[in-house]
Amino acid sequence: MTGTVHGVGVGPGDPELMTLKAFRLISGAEVVAYPILEASESFARSVAAKVMSPAVKEIPITVPMSTRRAPAQAAYDRGSDAIATELEADRDVVVLCEGDPLFYGSFMYLHSRLSGRFRVEVVPGVNSVTACAAALGRPLVARNEALTIIPGTLPEAELEHRIAGADAVAIMKVGRHLEKIRRVLARLGRAETAGYIERATLANQKVLPLGEAPGPAPYFSMILVGRKVDPWL
Amino acid sequence: MTGTVHGVGVGPGDPELMTLKAFRLISGAEVVAYPILEASESFARSVAAKVMSPAVKEIPITVPMSTRRAPAQAAYDRGSDAIATELEADRDVVVLCEGDPLFYGSFMYLHSRLSGRFRVEVVPGVNSVTACAAALGRPLVARNEALTIIPGTLPEAELEHRIAGADAVAIMKVGRHLEKIRRVLARLGRAETAGYIERATLANQKVLPLGEAPGPAPYFSMILVGRKVDPWL
Fold it and tell me: The complex's ipTM?
């Protein structure tokens, strides 16, 4: 008998936006694991902290700050080994994931390492795109429209090309790319319908028209661009 | 004093995928409202049914089956009037929404009618796209990739154009468009990496490679198409 890995989305930040299933699994967990960027705090752990049992065993997976791939891969190798040790002793492991585990999440690195040998279950969570739409109070996408979700980290020309052909757009990972994104949206005539959201659902949430967003933006920031026609219904 | 409208996402189907906040608001609600297609059942109500107080007052908003716009608009006019009556008596109203309220949801029709006069709060929910990725057990989108979400109802040429330029793709509202979508994906050489998911998170959930999906598909079905390179990591 071996344990099960549960990749559990904890939602966008407000602990009350955890699902009932996430709450049940996290509060009942004997072992939790989470990735943590070197020299920072785990956001997923901070969302789930009040729900975790005081006796829980924690497996932090420290991922080095580096654009090189090998050091991060080695960190996920060590993390999945530590998780595998628990699973082999028939203990389940809950992996805490920001937002949703399979939506731009690092859970895939553990999933790919463990899913061949162990049972892996994924519990979807509220993702940041819908949380930002709720904060802005505008429909994200409707009827026959398409929604394009793109990272703001893309090169300027590619960003422009993708947004030019799109209906509604959510631009993730704004951070230090704010000015580049503003230029692109201004050139496309779509800056007017764009909203800026920072730390959605947290106490220090900010919601502003794009033109008023102060730079630099934090990593947890997003820009939502209305549809071309009848922007927000 | 007037009440507040809460547009509450109940998630993709499994009641345990409601958020803690949805649970709190629905179980404490004196009045709930929900749209219901003529001659069918409200999916959102069925997800929330066990959580609702037996004494709750229900406002079903019956939307006629029609492709014409005016009858549906009239139904939302009547529904928002009924909700407004409660709000004016200082009672809060919880509107039950499938998945997430602002993601292809009819909540926007109530939002646009009520938000000028009353306080409207939106509680985001787990949407069907991430629920289907969890059912499939594959990363939806990662790193610098884009995710395009499109309705399968689009004309064949437009569907092909949009998918041709996209990384990962989620095709919603498959239903009777299954064969058309299969043709498009085959022509683009992307049928092999596509997964078909029906009634995600419900007891009768089905997950199949696209080639094995039997038609006709129910309304609650989706196709997820892997990224062009390194499809599922």
Answer: 0.95
